[in-house]
Amino acid sequence: MAKAIRMARTGGPEVLEYVDVEVGEPGPGEARVRQHAIGLNFIDVYFRTGLYPMPLPSGLGQEGAGVVEAVGEGVTHLRPGDRVAYAGRPNGAYSEVRVMPADILVRLPDAIDFETAAAMMLQGLTVQYLFRRTYPLQPGQTILFHAAAGGVGLIACQWARALGVNLIGTVGSNEKAELALAHGAAHVINYNSEDIVARVLDMTGGAKVPVVYDSVGKDTFHRSLDCLQPRGLMVSFGNSSGAVPPFSLSELASRGSLFITRPALGAYAATRPELESMAAELFEMVASGKIKVGINQRFPLAEAAQAHIALEARRTTGSTILLPEVAP
């Protein structure tokens, strides 16, 4: 038996139950992984609340790192003893041991420890596709990135700096502003005390920005559109403040023929070669020191509900991980 978080219904953090589960042997195309660390991400909240539907009862979590214990028939890229990390569906990462699809597992370089890997995979791969594929950034560009002091945001600040890109980050406090600046943001805007659109106009000399990366959703959506240059791209990749309400496409036309996309990691890492290429670039950025992953909160796996409370209250900065109580 192994310990895991399970939920039988959607709702608040109280629906997360710490229980014993039977893990079993991996089937064809699967691997059994004993996890050393597990990532916490806002997408977990979306599944827990029902914003993103899933069959119930279910596990939760899409990111982790550990050691392969066994592989099923047809798995050739892994063997028992391999250090691995992953990000993506199916849910179930909140577990000491899990059987999972082997095709989302990538071998972890020795230079990267398990906790760092669990804290960076989903967030780091997200930044990789946002900056390198959704809108390939070029040196000298100025961009707007919301929630710049969060886990994705701090990686984005550093990746932008490495690319020679001027990142304007929005944050909710002076403390978070200092954190974003320390990680490479060129400018910060405290959205609780400053007008985002006015500050972007001032920082860009009225030119606005070619792309906005917005994981906040409802509270920032229209202001994000107002920060874009004509034919600029709005990248809406999250809903931490709630889902974006319905809007008329004419709003894009009236602001200068804007573009909008709602990307997801699964579509960018849809094939094994794509996943391996994305992971290799992320690993290189981290191993080289260009990106440092700040793990600012650690919770025992049994306290996953408390971790969710802190995340939703915006009391976290950088990355948060869950740790199994029983050491492998």
Report the principal-axis shape.
Answer: globular
Regions with little confidence, pLDDT below 50 for 5+ residues? none
Which oligomerization state do the chains in this entry correspond to? Answer: single chain
Q: What would you call the structural class?
A: alpha/beta
Radius of gyration: 20 Å
**Averaged pLDDT:** 95
SSE topology string: EEEHEEEEHEHEHEHEHEHEHHEHE
The span between the termini is 13 Å
Tell me how many strands there are.
15
Sheet with most strands: 7 strands, mixed
- Beta-strand residue fraction: 25-35%
The count of helical stretches stands at: 10
Helicity level: 25-40%
Structural descriptors:
328 residues, alpha/beta, seven-stranded mixed beta sheet, six-stranded parallel beta sheet, 10 helices
Task: Summarize this entry quickly.
30% of the residues lie in helices and 26% in strands. The protein is built from 10 helices and 15 strands. α2 crosses α3 (151-163) and α2 (114-134) crosses α9.
Secondary structure: elements and pairs:
Blueprint: E1 2-6, E2 17-21, E3 30-40, H1 42-49, E4 63-71, E5 83-87, E6 97-101, E7 105-107, H2 114-134, E8 142-145, H3 151-163, E9 166-171, H4 174-182, E10 187-190, H5 196-203, E11 209-214, H6 221-226, E12 228-236, H7 250-254, E13 259-261, H8 265-268, H9 272-287, E14 295-300, H10 304-312, E15 319-323
Parallel strand pairs: 8-9, 8-11, 9-10, 11-12, 12-13, 14-15
Antiparallel strand pairs: 1-2, 3-4, 3-6, 3-15, 4-5, 5-7
